[in-house]
Design goal:
With 458 residues, the protein is of the alpha/beta class. The relative contact order is 0.13. Helices cover 44% and strands 14% of the residues. Helix 9 links the parallel strand 5 and strand 6.
Length: 458
Amino acid sequence: MIESNRSSEIADLLRGRIKTMNAGDKLPGVRTLSSTLHASAGTVSAALAELAAHGLVRSEPGRGTFVAEAGPNVDPDFAWQSQALGSKRVDEGRASKLGGYGGGGKIPLSWGYLASELQPNDDIRRITARAAKSPHAWTMTDSTGLPELRRVIAADFRADPDDVLVVSGGQQALVSVLRTLAEPGATVLTESPTYPGAIIAAQSAGLRLASVPSDGGGVRVDALADALERTRARVVYLQPNFANPSGVVLTAERRLEVVELARRHDAFLVEDDWSRHLCLEGVTPAPLSALDPDGHIVTIVTLSKPVSPGMRVGAVIARGPAGRRLRASRTADDLCVAPLMQEAAVSLLTSNAWPRHLKRIRPELIARRDALVSSLRAAMPELRIPIVPRGGLHLWARLPDGVDSTAVCAAADTAGVLVGDGRHFFVDEPPASFLRFSFGAATPAQIDEGVRRLSAVT
């Protein structure tokens, strides 16, 4: 992230120089720029690539980089597109935050993935290099996924491998599931607060969202029952384990009750089990699908969270006609997940590296979680932390009444700290001001410095 920020600085500096030059003038070579600007050759090359993408320079292999001819100074007119496109479905502000926290050289106190040093990078490189030599890595595979990978995932959930559909990560799973299980215009119920990615997935499928309040035990069953009666919704989205953002675990009693509600209302319950492998204390509860013999539960799993953001491999577990429809829809999307990625995933999950990785990150995440809680309580005692999560990657905190979470996040961003705005985790207006923190992407030292900067601008 720091290197990326440095290349942007160099690109800005070179822009100023280019303004004083003529079209066709040659820029100094990468080696010369690297020396004069005190930057690596890779950083300078990245800066030049950025300028080329904006049409400011052109590169001629073997000759060098030259100032490009200025294009016609005409402001494009895109007004026609607004009428042609119609109303927006997806909230752009919410969508921009999902992938936007991974760069910029800022302290990532809100980023839903593991830090690079916690990812099993050496194992992934070794496994991927071996997988790339397999003849199966470069051929078309079945749209449902490699049989070996489906068997491994099914075993973890005591499911039939034929009911497992491999997809490109949890977000694609969400879009596919919501689009397939509900008709456009139908209502989807979700606990509140909830994962913003689920909100935009529903929006992209043309669905209406209605929220159901949750508390320290998960979604409130009485409110869910009322919402099912009132809306006649046939799809409910839940995160039973270490929910994002609250960190809450659905209680054993409520697990039985929500499955019974799904049965009573002939509804699907989408179980987003993204944090199954990120339990920090005790044992992750059994999946809701274990309580359901009749196909009401559709489970989503992902490797992107416990492994790395680039491991875009996930799965949907669904039975009956819903499973068949999902598999048919999968073919319409992109035929199959890249076989190389699937080969690497199955090799990782069946190797000694997988349990070793999970064993290694557990104490690391506990230390970072505890550092975050300790720093916040010391530097920002006015924040209220409802629970200290026993798993997952996130911590939910309430700001004092009257404090605007959006303003706080903007001030934090200016101070070089990324914090999640609680507004993005609610379907409707938030009942109070909240911040979401994450403890998987920053070191304890970064956490302490990030909280210090945040407290100074709050």
